[in-house]
TrEMBL record:
It comes from Thermococcus celericrescens. PANTHER family: ASPARTATE CARBAMOYLTRANSFERASE REGULATORY CHAIN (PTHR35805). NCBIfam families: ATCase_reg. Keywords: Metal-binding, Pyrimidine biosynthesis, Transferase, Zinc. Binds 1 zinc ion per subunit. This is Aspartate carbamoyltransferase regulatory chain. The gene is pyrI.
Amino acid sequence: MAELKVTAIREGTVIDHIPAGKGLKVIEILRLNRPNGGVLLLASNVHSGKLGRKDIVKIEGKFLSEEEVNKIALIAPSATVNIVRDYKVAEKFKVEIPDEITGILRCANPNCVSNHEYTVSKFYVVSREPLKVRCHYCERTMEEEEILGNL
Ligand code: CTP
């Protein structure tokens, strides 16, 4: 079968090996679908040796912060981040779910102090597969679906 060719980018970030169907969620969570952003490409359901099917997100002119990489790790733990400069992959790394998640996730407990005071949210990763985290402040545990809804 012919390989699907997706346009190469000159400068920016390619998020590869995203589980099939999760690419749009990555775009949504990183708020990349904004009118003033650069070129954004989504390839969905592409053949991949390792995953069977995968999504790829390419963002021209953007480099990710550590917080953004951590968000991707929670949505798409298998993802690879490629930093492209002058059409070449200058750097490549696998995302990794950190042991502690600070600042990027809201606690699902409406009474949690982190939702009311000027407190930076903090969670401990209890399990990576399936994904499960525990709030440092109220000890509420959250699983994948709730986590994705509170990023
Ligand atoms: N890419 C791109 N624009 C470039 C260079 C690379 O969009 N100028 C994309 C490729 O299409 C690919 C990803 O960046 O989706 C990684 O590129 P590369 O490391 O060359 O591909 P692989 O060796 O297939 O990557 P891996 O081993 O991580 O699967």
